[in-house]
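hey can u check if this looks right to u? its 375 residues, i copy pasted from the old doc so theres a chance i mangled smth
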Amino acid sequence: MKCIEIKTNPSYNVWIGPALTSQIGKLLYSIANGHRVAVISDMYVDPLYGEEVIASIEDYGIEVQSFPIMVDEKTKTLDTVETLLSKLAKENYSKEDVLLDVGGGMISDIAGMTAALYLSGIKVVHMPTTLLGMTDAAVGGKAELNIPEGKGIVGTVYQPEMVIADLDVLSTLPEQEIKSGIGEIIKYAVIEDNGLYGKLMNHVGRADMVELENIIADSVEIKNRIVSEDPTGTGLRGVVRLGHTAGQAIETATDYGVLHGEAVGLGMLIMAYGTGNRKTGDKIKRLLERYDMPTAIDWPDREIIAAALYKGTDDRKYEGTYSIVVPEKIGQCVQKKVSARSLTLILKKGLVAIGHSKNQSSKLRLLRPFRRARS
């Protein structure tokens, strides 16, 4: 088991290892003793881990209630947060009580926002059950919600008390969800290599739990260095949006038919090739291919570009410019401001380079048969 201290203010620990679900009560005891715990979980995840989580907490004499909710990109909204706020208020939760969220990245967004708003701030602990959540969404304190005008427009930064990443829960995930998480890990290898690129090229898969633990820890350490320097996201932290300009546009254009990590992988390729960094794009492509992840998408470029320019990303237009992250080489990414015309040209060039077909109808053409997993 590994423990990584995230050096924000306040600081907190990320626990990574097997069999942590059964130890949640022990891990929570120092912050929840004498108080209550509200477990907010995805209703599809709750049957898998709910009983074990609750039993572990109750074993330490802590009162606990469960609040399973339906969550996807279309319900990751203020309405869902308001519903949770009302439930907490009706149950008379106090400022010293604790929220524990169990599920993927969307649950940590919803719970983080709920915790930040309830009584102006209540303790929150994240237990991510997806690889993407363990390596990215649950670490750093960002909580983002969607509104009709775009994805991630409503948000805040609210640090958790701790993050508990039980590697055993990954065994319930389908391979596509593992690949989605790998997409975010590859992003960190491109942002700050530090040996992670080589580890990923040599990694044999989720069966090698020791190496997987090390890879997750490396990703968390990279994000730790970034968010410790820029916890609110006004400077360096912007680099973690590598691949998101085109990636989130792909998600929006396809009505979330492409998993987030896969979209980020495609977004990195588009940005590398679109800005003329072909050698870097080739290296990213080889790593994506190593994990059988998509390196092309059959979707009208006009819809992807429109989504990038007008909605679906949190690159808010400011004084005629858009923020992008350019992977100049492995381990070196830079943030730039570009005009709408420049962004359009970059996206067009990148889409052409990845073998994108321009002359397709707007009918959905997925990368492969898709079924969203909940754990």
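The CA atoms of residues 244 and 264 lie 6 Å apart.
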